[in-house]
Amino acid sequence: MHVLVVEDDERVAGHVVKGLKGEGWLVDHVADGRQALFQVAAETYDVIVLDRMLPNVDGLKILQTMRAAGDSTPVLILSALGDVDNRVKGLRAGGDDYLAKPFAFSELLARVEALSRRKGVVQETTELRLADLEMNLLTRIVTRRGKPIELTTREFGLLEYLLRNAGRVVSRSMLLEAVWDYNFDPQTNIIDQHVSRLRQKLDKDFDPPLLQTIRGMGYSLRA
Q: How distant is the alpha carbon of residue 137 from its chain centre?
């Protein structure tokens, strides 16, 4: 899936781009309204994440130009202007969704995924599997070799993210952004604690182990 992030705040843009890439999305980024118009005309995107207040051309003008040209790409507006009147203006200008700053990356991701489904891009997944490990997202049942594994809500979210990125190395910061609020203290050892408990449940009574620590990089769930 291909997403365009239009955001002039370097910190916010870096956070969003990194998180989306971590979810497997192909991401382009521009920091200027005029550049955004050129990019939209040159490329086809599944979703656009659009800041409202931008240099040269503001987000609402970009939206109006897109819709006037017949471009129906789903657009998620990001803005520090989160009151009702401004949200209404954004939606009436052609936005499909509106997310006020500050925001949690997990919520932004959920909204981007929802918009992509409207376009028919993402197929709904109800089961995740790796080797003899299975997760049912509807019943929230996790099994290994058919044996149920009891997980807390946080452990379930952590395992889901690892399964969706099976075979990849995911950093602690990626896990913080995906499973915890993005403002969580990056120096905390909460990730290590939860991974340790999850490893005990997944691998203690089974062979081979699936949850691996990659020294200096993070973790990887792999067969």
A: 17
Number of C-beta neighbours around residue 69 at 10 A: 11
Domain with CATH 3.40.50.2300 in the chain: 2-118
- Look at residue 55 and tell me whether its pLDDT is greater than 90: yes
User: Where do the DSSP E strands lie in the chain?
Assistant: 2-6, 26-30, 47-51, 75-79, 97-100, 127-130, 133-136, 141-144, 147-148, 211-214, 218-221
- For residue range 143-161, what is the model confidence (pLDDT) as tens digits? 999 999 999 888 998 898 8
- CATH 1.10.10.10 residue spans of the chain: 127-221
- Closest among 162, 176, 145 to 219, alpha carbons compared: 162
- Find out if CATH 2.60.40.420 is the number for domain 127-221: no
pLDDT tens-digit readout, 92-101: 889 999 998 8
Question: Domain 2-118 classified CATH 1.25.40.10?
Answer: no
